[in-house]
Design goal:
Layout: H1 4-7, H2 12-22, H3 27-74, H4 79-106, H5 120-146
Length: about 150
């Protein structure tokens, strides 16, 4: 979560209090400074809430725009836009699957190779991609049978 206070230097109010507290000032002036600091803190909190609302609106707009693009690709008359996502997912799955197998097969050649070391998040991302694609295609087929 984005914190506007962190962006603006977080402890500006505390720093101001420390600097003002180092000087001997009239208690009424000190109370006025404290009231101004408290008022600005409230305004900062309001602005932070407004910023969070705008971020949520931007994310939901981006998600709906992405969904519209995917729908347009799926409804395209050309075979390439309709099949590019499944083909890329298939290619990615093959690369990950055959990565250790190439190393095993290459042991029988003159130049043995080691498998490429992949981070665990790559496997998770691939699993999420395949699961999402299969679930969406299954839902699409069930929906087509209902109509």
């Amino acid at each position: 979560m984005i914190n506007l206070g962190t962006i603006l230097g977080g402890n500006v109010g505390q720093l101001f209090k420390d600097v003002v507290g180092a000087f001997k000032i009239d208690p009424t002036k000190k109370a006025e400074f404290q009231a101004a600091i408290d008022e600005n803190a409230a305004l900062l909190a309001v602005k932070e809430l407004e910023l969070q609302s705008k971020i949520q609106d931007a994310v939901s707009t981006e998600v709906s725009a992405s969904a519209d693009i995917i729908k347009a690709e799926a409804n395209s008359q050309s075979w390439l836009p309709r099949n590019v996502r499944p083909l890329l997912l298939l290619l990615w799955g093959c690369i990950i699957t055959f990565n250790p197998l190439v190393a095993i097969i290459s042991q029988f050649t003159k130049a043995p190779m080691q498998p490429i070391t992949l981070d665990p998040w790559i496997y998770k991302l691939t699993a999420i991609g395949f699961t999402g694609y299969v679930a969406f295609r299954s839902w699409e087929k069930v929906k087509a049978k209902d109509t």
